[in-house]
Amino acid sequence: MSHRLKVFLVAVAGLMLLSACTGPKAEEKRAEGAAPVTTQPAGPLRVAVISHGTAGDAFWNVVKNGAEEAGRQLGVQVEYNSDGDPGNQAKLVDNAVAQRVGGLVVSMANPEALKTSVENAVRAGIPVITINSGEDKSAAYGALTHVGQNESIAGEEAGKKFRELGKKKLLCVIHEAGNIGQAQRCDGAKTGFAGDVQTLQVDISNPADAESRIRGAVQTDSSLDAVLTLNSQVAARAVSAIKAVGSRAQVGTFDLNTDVVGAIKSGDVVFAVDQQQYEQGYLPVQFLKLYRDNANVVGGGKPVLTGPDLVDKSTVDTVGQYVQRGTR
């Protein structure tokens, strides 16, 4: 055998050995314990935004506006869907995973109901960002980050505001049973208020009954001098209920809409805790685009906070113009 042939055979053997080391089994070894790799389809990024909002909820309309505007600006295809029932919301997430969307944005008012669906999305290689509710479970379920307001801090700020106003007894109105974020708001309000705080459960899908229950509470207990609602639509019902019975209680609320802006200007509502939900729609779409195009992750393992920002008579004129156009 010639020297040249020997060199050739040695080279071929080396290449075969290298191929064996870097073949499928070696790739499997490297992948053990690693995060799933997303294989994104060609073309524009497609993002599914799935919230627990109910139909006609002004708050979630603003979230939707933010997500869709980000999509227009960044060339991202945004598909918004919502369902207030946790089981149905989980099915929407499952459908998005089955359709192989390029990114998922999901609110988790009931984290346990969404756990399997969100984890399945992550296992499928779909990057997930949680918004609004479920901050405590976001990282555990595999989300890249959480965008929203820390509900305990926001509730504490609302309680402090009432305390500064000299109030002595506070009623915190919960409008969605099982919503962990609302419980955190009321618990935070108890801490900030440092006084007598009671809670009342109403159903946002039955506004007339919600108003009746609030009316009954302030009529039965005349010492209630503060009412904290956790939704702008419930705030309007609280104002009507208080006026109907001649109560001296004042209303503070979470979230803004045009009615709340008008009520702050008239003095019927003393403040609103604004979590700037437009950002909760806009920022995740931007973050997912950055993640796909440049592997950027925002937050450094911590949530990206969009609130709280307290709006009262001193700031309502400035903020109100943006509420009118659907961005606050």
UniProtKB/TrEMBL annotation:
Signal peptide: 1-26
Primary residence: other
Domain Periplasmic binding protein, residue spans: 48-290
Source organism superkingdom: Bacteria
Keyword Cell membrane part of the UniProt annotation: no
GO cellular component terms listed in the entry, alphabetical order: outer membrane-bounded periplasmic space
Keywords from the UniProt entry: Signal
Annotated compartments: Cell envelope
GO molecular function: carbohydrate binding
UniProt KW Signal keyword: yes
Family: Belongs to the bacterial solute-binding protein 2 family.
Protein name, entry field: Sugar ABC transporter substrate-binding protein
Organism name: Amycolatopsis orientalis
